[in-house]
Description:
Layout: H1 2-25, H2 36-56, H3 59-67, H4 72-81, H5 84-96, H6 104-126
Helix pairs in contact: 2-4, 2-5
Amino acid sequence: MKTFRTYGKSISQILLACFFSMIIYLPVAQAGIVSTDHIISADKAASERGQLENMLKRDDLAKQFEALGVDATEIQNRINSLTDEEVLSLNSQIQNLHAGGGNHGNYILIGTIVIISLMVIHVLLLF
């Protein structure tokens, strides 16, 4: 009992110092309001990033990248380094590209209009 009294006070002081030092070094949690738009935009960016990764994993694109000397891991690293805004912008640009590689429909339409108008003028001049 006498040993407990002599060592008990110093042990309790050491334990008390440990508890207070733990309280001092604990980080303070901060909570904030997260808007629905922020959550939706983060989810959309993750979805768009996945869509971009899946598109670039296609065999025909992989062969073209290999022919150009671009490694698949380099492509993945570049996709991971893009910000959410850049991923959304890149996907929207890809979606707006024409599948045929050009906008020849406008030229065909203009040519058709010119031919029809020439035919109408020719018919009107005959009568």
